[in-house]
Structure formats: structure tokens, C-alpha cells
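Question: I have long wanted to understand how a fold can be written as C-alpha cells. Here is the record:
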Amino acid sequence: MAEIPARNPQTGDASIEADPDLYDGSDSSLGDDVSKYTASLTSSIERYPIENGRRYHAFKDGNYVMPNDESELDRLDLTHQMLRIVLGNKLYLAPIGLKPKRILDVGTGTGIWAIEMGDDFPAADIIGTDLSPTQPSWVPANVKFEIDDAEEPWTFPHKFDFVHLRYLAAAIADWPRLVRQAYDATEPGGWAEFQDFDVTYYSEDGSMKPEHEVQQWITRLIDAAVKFGRDPCPGSKIEGWMREVGFENVQHEKYRLPIGPWPKDKHLKSIGAWNLVQVEDGLEGFTLRLYTQFLGWKTDEVHVHLAKVRQDLRNPKIHIQFDL
């Protein structure tokens, strides 16, 4: 649920105009046994598997296609900054008021959103959950992180004033169940906000053709994610799922995200530049597990393919975008 912001070029009905200029150019009483067990558990969670040169989650290994290494963590932080720009330098859109007491961030990743919310709301208790303990140790006193699988039953002892979920495309097997758990975890009168993608690439002017490598790549990627049993395009469906479980005052806003600085509009040009960097930085992570495990590609074949995809992504005459 979110407030609808003022109209902007990302959300309008008119096609995004391309920039023609680009064509040119612990407590001791617990005892040692508990401490040893905790250390052993932490060690197992951090015993990350390596595939194709990338590091992946150890907890629930195989349930998530993206890596959790430093390159991916840097990309997640970059994407966070991009979405702040998309949302008008905001962390959220829901009208949560000035004094939320409890906030939950599901799939917290690097924890950057939870940390910034902790700074903004020092009186709130904020929990971020993720499959890996990749968050920093120096955080605001009101912020804590927990290792958890969002698809398992949520066992929090209390409800939250604000439940926040984002970046879960191709990560969730049962979206209606996830939305139901978010509903059950939200205090009456509280808010839940989902920010997620539909990763179907398109060009409003037809400049992306079926023969383009990038079009073939994203089509195969979506097919592989579906074979994996994870929806890569949940963004446009979340509104319906929220209404079905009983959320009220549901509002849906779509943002168009160009890839590359090809738009003429300065705001969209900036977003496109950020988006190009995060997409390029994520190409290997997006592709390697899905292509090798579900499409049968060899690693070197993937790298050759992605080199051609990068060429298309950087071509200012191919006006690619997808939706948030």
C-alpha cells in the first residue's frame, strides 16, 4: 500500500522520448555449550557454496538464484540508491506517520534500507530478515538483523506497523502465501508496501527487435525462472494479491525504468544511467544459475552471450525499459 506521488514522466501514459543527441556520441550464565552451538550454527550459515566463480547463500542453498558475494552486495546498494531517486528521494510511499513503533524489512539484503529507516525513526524497533548474514555489524541501536526464509511460516511474537518487501522477483515460489503472511504480520491500521519488478523488457518505439541479443537473453531468463518455480514478474500482480488477502486502501503505482541514458527527460536520463550500471553489474548474477542449471548452458557460452547483451544495453538506439 502506498500513496500515489505527483505525476512524473515515469508514470505517464505517453511514450518516453529518446534523446537524439546520444546517436552521436552474550549472557555467561547460558554456558559454553550454547555459545559453541551458536558459533557452529553461524559457521554453517556462512559456509557459502561457490559456483561458476560466484558465492551463493548457504542457508536454504538452491532456493535463491542470485549470489551473495561482494559484487552483488555492491549492486544491491546501488539499486537502493537508484530507487530512492525513482521515488523522489524517499524510502517508502506508505503514509506510516511520524512514530511507527515496529518495522519489518523482509529480504533486507545488505540492510541498507533498514539502517536508513533506523536513522529516520530512532524510536522504532526495526527488524531486517534475509537468508545470509551479509549486513554490517555497526548499525543503529534500534536495528537488528535475523537469518530467516520469508517463505517459511513467520514466527514474530508481535505485529508490525509497517511491513516492507522489495527486490523479490524470481525469489518467491508462492507469492499469494507471502502476501498473506505480510497481511497477518501487519497491525490493524498499519501498512505494507511492496516494491517489485516486472522484468519483461520492452521498447515503446519498437527499437528492440526479436533478433537483438538482449531480447533473446531476457526471454530465456524469464523462461528459466519459471522453470525454477519463481515468478520473475510479480510487480503488476501484487495489487490483486493484496486485495485478495484483505488489505484495504490498496494503491498501485507503476514506474517505468529505462536502461541507459537514452531518454531526453533529465530525470529519466539519470535513472537510466543508474539502471544501466546495476543491470550490467548484475548480468552474471541474474544469468549463471538459471542458464546453467535450467537451460543446460555451459559457463563459457553464458559469458559469450552476455558480452553481446552488454553491447545491446549500451546501444543508445535501442530504447529498453522495464517496470517497477
User: Anything to note?
Assistant: The longest strand covers residues 186-195.
